[in-house]
Design goal:
about 675 residues; mainly alpha; Arc Repressor Mutant, subunit A; Rossmann fold; Serine Threonine Protein Phosphatase 5, Tetratricopeptide repeat; 6-stranded mixed sheet
Amino acid sequence: MSELSSTDTEFLNQLTAKIEQNLANEQFGVTELADALNMSRSNLLRKVKKATNLSVSQLISQARLKQGMELLRKGSLNVSEVAHHTGFSSTSYFIKCFREYYGYPPGEVGKRANESESVPVAPPPVRNSNRKFILIGAVSLVLVVFGWVAYKYWPTKKAVVVDKSIAVLPFKNDSNDSTNVYLINGLMESTLNNLQRIKDLRVISRTSVEKYRNNAKTIPEMANELNVTYFVEGSGQKMGDRIVLTIQLIDGSTDRHLWSRQYRRETKDIFALQQEISSDIAGEIRAIITPEEKNRIQKVPTQNLEAYDAFLKGVDLLKRGGGANLRQSLVFFDEAISKDNTFALAYACAGMACYYLDMFQAEKLYVDRLGAYADKAVLHDARLAESLMTKGMYYLIRKEYKEALPYLERALEYNPNSTEVVGLLTDFYYMYLPNTGKYLEYALKGLKLNANSGDSVAISYFHLRLGNALIQSGFVDQSLEHIDKSLEYNPENAFSRYVRAFVVYAKEGDLQHTRKLLLNEFQRDTNRYDILQDIGKVSYYLKDYNAAYNYYKRFNRQRETKKLDAFEYENLVIGRVYELAGEKEKAKEFYARYRKYLDRDQTAYKNAGLALYYCQMNDRTKALEHMRLFSQEDNIQYWVILFMDKGPELTETEASPEFKKILQEVARKFWVNHEKLKLKLEEQGLL
């Protein structure tokens, strides 16, 4: 690197000072640094890259790690405290970054403190009178030159970076007694869950490996499909009060058995067995287990083996899903709880069963039981990821979305490989409290965790989620790319074709084409009430009011017959269509339903909804007031920008210059945020 100019040196000194002032603030990143220096984000990125050849994120990270090293050398703080003081969101992430930067974990700083750092010392000058030393010097010089040539031109092997990815295949029941299957499945599940708690590992999800339960594919074939380095195979049986379990660790590319062990334990030692298996596997592939992760793995869920036996039967049914299985799982979970009323994991899983039973029902029959289970789960173990996830589910069902978020975020902190929690957070920022930036962040995280799962159907949905997140942030071409990838993996993914119809509109601006695509999709499945309402809406925007009315009538009939709590936010447009069709009283009912929906709306779109409602009610003052409030929101969806000026039959207020001016400000702000997000994603190599 060329020598820095005095201007660059002064700039870096100011930059370093700002970073050091904010090291403990984990939210202090590129945008915050740019603001602190009164610079644009793009200008900051360019100047730092030119002066240091580093990204701003790397510079901030290095400053945090160097400060961490200084604090550890002083010895007054432990690793967790140092992580907190240097702005790392979790201790395990600090340990990972520290090891990558310094080559050893922070726990070894004290041991290495006394090691002297070797500094090259220049050799004394050679005297002509000493031929022996001249000869040695000449030979040494030849060796040095040869070594340099060998280093420069000799073929060398690249350093091998071991991918610590692992798949736990379904364990086999060696016993003739099929009633023991739930126990063997439970041991597999506990092994998987324990490994998922280790952030240093990439663990393939249960759903992605389940398809191999009765599959004849070879290990290398599965490794290629799953893009995974290691496999765990297990088989076992229960004989009286004893469990015999054989575990093997296999190299995915060669099918070579790297390690095998048979465990013979009393059933009363089942928890020690689970912990031992996970630790042995992690040790064999040299995965770093932080003290926090170790504590979570070693935590015994219950001391009552009969309770645990009933719990495993419940989990087996919970994983299968479906109304009948979920209801029967509750019977077993309640049995487990009756035998141990402090069994947090049983309470949590019972709550999950209630959540899935109520999820799409207008009448929530299990919400009170879900709340009771969640409270007990958190009471008995507030650091269990499943407890926190269940509590979050309770608030989601009750539509108390802001209360749900901290529980879901902490659940992910305690189980960073959990596809279930990542999925909930992704959907949270899509459906419950829409935030385009966060939605995209978790969609990317989900794809990273699962894109190489080998399950073409699962991968298809991961690309669908990402494509949907990208279009909502205004990335039309990138969205279409992922939607098309989704359909390559699974051509029968009806939801991808559904979303694609609107992405194509964003690209082409042809609503007639969009309606044609939606009609084609509806003909495949005439029970799709979601498509029905969108065909009605597109027909409305096309000013084909008769078609809009007929499609909305069919949609409302399905919504009422099935007692669905769905698309209440569309009732304003539905009311307008009914009013145009001459059904004014029915239209008033829809307007009233829309107003009722807005009363409980917690999203960033509440003020936009109220503005449109008051436009319909001819209250110009309130309409403009709420539209101005909406213009202050960030991270709104691209669909708002795309459709907000396309509506036919505008009210007097909607057609006014004041209203249109506010809409222009909303659009301007959206594209400013779009450019900021684009820079961030490009910096991270995600676009």
